[in-house]
Amino acid sequence: MKIAVIGAGAMGSLFAGRLADEDHHVSLIEVSGAMIEAIGEKGLRMTGRFGEKTYRLPVGSADHYTDAFELLIVFTKGMHTTSAMEAAKHAIGPDTWALTVQNGIGNVEAIEAFIARDRIVMGMTNWPSTLIEPGLVNVPGDGEIKVWAASGQMSQKLEVIAAALDEAGLNCTLDSHVEVAIWEKLAFNSALNSLAAITGLTVGEMGDRRESRNIVFTIVDEVVAVAKARGLAVDVDHIRESIEHAFANHRQHKPSMLQDRLAGRRMEIGTITGAVSKTGAALGIATPVTTAFADLLTIVDGEA
């Protein structure tokens, strides 16, 4: 397939490299000049789970490309999805599909303004990938991808896309209940990211303190209540087990919102914590702790 990955960060680079390894024609769309320069000069470099690899891939801003792609894989942060799609709209043809396994909710709707819903694949992934420096990522372990059609309808193209990801070693499965997995990950992220970004605590430090544990699991319960009001059979015990596993095994990890705050970058609030608050309000479900953290995050957003 002729594929463009929008966003050459940790996850975009992982997907781009693995798909290129299977002889797909992969290009990178990126806005960072430092990232474009690094990949252009040294290639996209990957270490860890798949060994030491260097991929020589086309890289540039959206206007660097003129022809339409078969598949756009969107890996920007949620607040940049619309602007990224706007920049790349000239590379969207009548048969172009899009894939989003971005964090949070609302990305499908943003993409739908440019590509019909029946050509959008949505899902979630828990693959670990860390951007060491521009153009260099480390993949420390295994993960999986779950995807399904945003329209809810099975299609041959959906199967082709899922097979391509699976053949690239990314452990992709089709899951008609993927929205449940998306909301379970949303609960995980809303809890750990929000508290870490406000307090500066690592994952292990949050797990060590009674007060922080109480806040984390209160946010989880609020997200679960909103998901169930939407008719989704989320498993609160599975979410709690995932968080306890993170407390024990990812002790030094700084969640992405904390990393962004420390670097003075904007945080991914609107598609994660803020999205839960907004959806809860629309459904008449109270989310007082989640909403308080969404407000706090908004106050400090962009501050180093």
Structure in words:
It is a single chain. The chain has 304 residues and is an alpha/beta fold. It folds into 2 domains: 2-175, NAD(P)-binding Rossmann-like Domain (Rossmann fold), CATH 3.40.50; 178-300, N-(1-d-carboxylethyl)-l-norvaline Dehydrogenase, domain 2. The protein contains 12 helices and 12 strands. It is globular and about 50 Å long. The model has no long low-confidence stretch (mean pLDDT 95).
List the helices and strands and how they pair.
Layout: E1 2-6, H1 10-21, E2 25-29, H2 33-42, E3 44-48, E4 53-55, E5 59-60, E6 69-74, H3 81-87, E7 92-100, H4 107-112, E8 120-125, E9 130-133, E10 136-139, E11 145-149, H5 156-170, E12 172-174, H6 178-199, H7 203-208, H8 210-229, H9 236-249, H10 256-262, H11 273-283, H12 288-300
Parallel strand pairs: 1-2, 1-6, 2-5, 3-10, 6-7, 7-8, 11-12
Antiparallel strand pairs: 3-4, 8-11, 9-10
Helix pairs in contact: 1-5, 6-8, 6-9, 6-10, 6-12, 8-11, 11-12
Give a brief description:
This protein has 12 helices and 12 strands. The protein is an alpha/beta fold.
Molecular shape: globular
- Strand segment count: 12
* CATH architectural name of the largest domain: 3-Layer(aba) Sandwich
> CATH top level of the largest domain?
Alpha Beta
Stretches where pLDDT is under 50 for at least 5 consecutive residues are none
Element-by-element helix/strand order: EHEHEEEEHEHEEEEHEHHHHHHH
CATH topology of the largest domain: Rossmann fold
The secondary structure category is alpha/beta
Strand content: 15-25%
The CATH fourth-level homologous superfamily of the largest domain:
NAD(P)-binding Rossmann-like Domain
Mean pLDDT: 95
Query: What's the total helix number?
Result: 12
